[in-house]
Amino acid sequence: MSLCETQCDTDDAIVALAMLRGRPALEVVFLCFVCVLSLKPQPDARICSQDIILRVEFLIKKAPNLKWLNSRLYTPNLTDYQQKCPSSTFKCFAAEIKVLTDEWKTFDNIPKFKLNILLGELATSFNQTESECRQCELFKEQNAEKFLKDLLSTLQFINEQYC
Predict the structure, then answer these.
(1) Which of 126, 97, 125, 124 is nearest to 113 (CA)?
(2) What is the pTM of this model?
């Protein structure tokens, strides 16, 4: 048990503060204040997305060969993620990546690696209300290569932030 937990967590600390006067009381209050300020929420391990990045990079390499399909996808970007909408951004990426991989599977040997499920799980790891976030269908439609590059840059930003 850490010093912060033993000093700040219990009702005994409040009773001890009531019994202390002067400098010792201020020291205990200061110690508790420092402990509270030093507590940082630890990032969820699921937010680190190196595996997803490798899968997206694989699809980016496939994109030029399948450009003739002229796939158009609703494309959120890093700005949408940063505007307090990370969950809805990744829900959109997940839905659109499913459309893309289903379309591409018909014409190329795309491995079945459930990227849409991984992106959906990533979306649930963010606590967010979606009331002020745009629906997926309101994003600009882009070609598959642009969509994948925007997804990749958003994932790389997350890794820089959390991993």
Answers:
(1) 97
(2) 0.68
